[in-house]
């Protein structure tokens, strides 16, 4: 056989092989596109297919998110979580509450461990870079609680003393930025932080004033001597960054709930039994996502 003939056949075989490889790669590319498309399927469709929605809440922050005497989740945020499940899935029990800590809220959304965070999540510019917030349903400011026998009425009184805060909270951020010389005792869990105050490991504790009002009511001998510090902030549901479908649904839900004064009903059911008449509901509740 002539060398030219052999060479020609070799080139033909090589060309056929390249065509086959291109076809295979094209098929893989098409498959990958389909896979990616599947990954981006409706977030709400996925929740409905699973038959439940996962919502991150606190388990130790009464009266907002906590475990009651029957071992069940309860509180202002949980009350809302159940209504979300009812309106989205037709059953208020079609919700799986997942315990989160303040410092883990963003991570639980980023890793899709939960669909929504309802853990007293204060809206901040820093957090907006990592998660998407829906419309607010509550107002909040920072407060400082301290013993009646040694009340902290001014931040200057904390010089040379220790202030207790929770990691991952606006209190930690505020005092770290505004008072860098102040010594902070930081804890992961709310229970740990408040126990530290009870044990006199710190002179005072800074947290959301809405929580401190409730805690001081239930723990005689302590007063929220600094009732409001810094700017007035809002608390809102949060979803995974870019999950616009669920975000839009939540915004619509919050507006609709505002028409029936749902959040005032939530306040009456979960917060007034703790606050009594010591707190004006209008200083806490936000209806329809509109802060007034």
Describe the model.
The protein is an alpha/beta fold and 292 residues long. The chain has 2 domains: 43-137 and 236-283, D-Maltodextrin-Binding Protein, domain 2, CATH 3.40.190; 141-232, 3-Layer(aba) Sandwich (D-Maltodextrin-Binding Protein, domain 2), CATH 3.40.190.10. The protein is built from 10 helices and 13 strands. Strands 10-9-11-8-12 form a 5-stranded mixed sheet, with helices on both faces. Strand 3 (65-67) and strand 4 (73-74) form a beta hairpin. The longest helix has 37 residues, at 3-39. The protein is globular, with a radius of gyration of 27 Å. The termini are far apart. The model is unreliable at 9-13 and 19-40 (pLDDT under 50).
The first-level CATH class of the largest domain is given as Alpha Beta
* Major sheet: 5 strands, mixed
Using the CA coordinates, give the radius of gyration: 27 Å
Oligomer: single chain
Short description:
Helices cover 43% and strands 22% of the residues.
List the helices and strands and how they pair.
Blueprint: H1 3-39, H2 43-50, E1 53-57, E2 60-61, E3 65-67, E4 73-74, H3 76-89, E5 95-99, H4 105-110, E6 116-117, H5 125-128, E7 131-133, E8 138-147, E9 162-166, H6 170-178, E10 183-187, H7 190-198, E11 204-208, H8 209-218, E12 222-235, E13 238-240, H9 244-259, H10 262-275
Parallel strand pairs: 1-5, 1-6, 9-10, 9-11
Antiparallel strand pairs: 2-3, 3-4, 7-13, 8-11, 8-12
Features:
globular; 2 domains; 13 strands; 3-stranded parallel β-sheet; 5-stranded mixed β-sheet; D-Maltodextrin-Binding Protein, domain 2; about 290 residues; single chain
